[in-house]
Specification:
Length: about 280
C-alpha cells in the first residue's frame, strides 16, 4: 500500500486460515489494528488507517467481483488449495476483470521495497518478457541475498541446483550482473507475470500443491515463446517457511517438506522430461 508509482489493486487470498487471520485483516482494514514489525528492514510499524476494502468468496471473486471494486480486496478461497490453487483464485479474479496489464505474486511472508513493483514493471516491459523476478533478500538478515530472481534447474537430475546469488551480500550484487538467459525459473516469493503470459500459458498447475509450481510455470512459458527477466533493483525481503514451518506430519521422508519436494521432482520430470525418470 506504500509503493511508489501507480497504485495497484491489492488482492489477498486466504487459503482457509484457522488462526483468525481474516478477522485480523478486516480489523486492520477498518483501521482498528496497528501493524507491528520491529524487525522489518523497511519500518518498525504503522499507525492504524482505515482503508476502503471488499471481501469475496471464491465464486464471486472468480467472476471478477464488481465493477466498482476498491483498491483492496480480500478473497476467502474456501479451503487449503495449496500454493498454486490459492494464487490461482486471485489470478482468475484478475483475468475475469480484464483490467490488469500485469499481476504480481507476492508471498504472505514478504516485505517489499517501495520501488520494488515499479522496477519489476519497467524491466518486464523493457525486455518484452512474460515473467520477471526480484532480488530476494533474507528478512532476518536484510543485507544477505536469498535469490537473484530465481534459480537454475539440472534437468538430468530433475531438481533445482540452488538459487542464483544465494548468500551474497547486497553490496556485492552490482559487481556481478546476472544474465537473464541463464535463469530457468523465477522464485515464487516475488514474481510478476504479464497478462499476455496468463492468457497464453494459463494458470499454475495445481497438482504439485507445494513446491515446483513456479518452475513448471516458467517451463511452460518458455515453450510458449516467453522469456524470463530479472529486475535487480526490485528488492523484497522474504522470511521463508511461513507455510512449510506449520507442517507437522512427518510421516513421509522425515518431513512433509521432503515429501512434497521429492514427489514433485518426479511429477515435474514426468510432465516435462519423462525420458529422464530412470535417473
Amino acid at each position: 500500500m506504500r509503493l511508489n508509482g501507480p497504485a495497484p489493486r491489492v488482492v489477498v487470498c486466504d487459503n482457509a486460515s484457522s488462526d483468525g487471520s481474516m478477522e485480523m485483516l478486516r480489523q486492520w482494514a477498518r483501521g482498528e489494528l496497528p501493524v507491528e514489525a520491529p524487525a522489518s528492514p523497511i519500518a518498525s510499524g504503522y499507525a492504524p488507517v482505515a482503508r476502503d476494502h471488499r471481501c469475496y468468496g471464491r465464486v464471486q471473486a472468480e467472476r471478477g467481483g464488481a465493477a466498482d471494486d476498491p483498491p483492496l480486496v480480500f478473497i476467502e478461497t474456501g479451503g487449503n488449495l495449496g500454493f498454486a490453487g490459492g494464487n490461482n483464485v486471485g489470478l482468475r479474479y484478475a483475468l475475469a476483470r480484464g483490467d490488469a496489464r500485469h499481476v504480481w505474486l507476492l508471498n504472505n511472508d514478504a516485505v517489499a521495497d517501495p520501488d520494488a513493483l515499479r522496477a519489476l514493471v519497467d524491466r518486464i516491459e523493457a525486455d518484452k518478457a512474460g515473467m520477471c523476478g526480484s532480488t530476494v533478500l533474507h528478512y532476518a538478515d536484510p543485507e544477505t541475498c536469498q535469490a537473484r530472481c530465481g534459480g537454475r534447474f539440472d534437468y538430468a537430475k530433475g531438481g533445482p541446483t540452488g538459487h542464483i546469488g544465494e548468500g551474497m551480500k547486497r553490496a556485492e550484487l552490482a559487481r556481478h550482473p546476472v544474465d537473464p538467459a541463464t535463469i530457468d525459473y523465477v522464485m515464487g516469493a516475488s514474481m510478476l507475470v504479464s497478462r499476455a503470459f496468463l492468457e497464453r500459458v494459463g494458470l499454475m498447475w495445481e497438482g504439485y500443491f507445494l513446491f515446483f509450481e513456479e518452475i513448471d510455470w516458467a517451463e511452460r512459458g518458455r515453450r510458449a515463446g516467453f522469456s524470463l527477466a530479472y529486475a535487480p533493483d526490485s528488492f523484497v525481503w522474504h522470511k521463508g517457511g511461513a507455510s512449510t514451518g506449520k507442517l507437522v506430519d512427518a510421516s513421509y521422508y522425515g518431513s512433509p517438506t521432503d515429501h512434497y519436494f521429492l514427489r514433485n521432482r518426479l511429477l515435474f520430470t514426468r510432465r516435462h522430461r519423462p525420458w529422464l525418470l530412470p535417473l
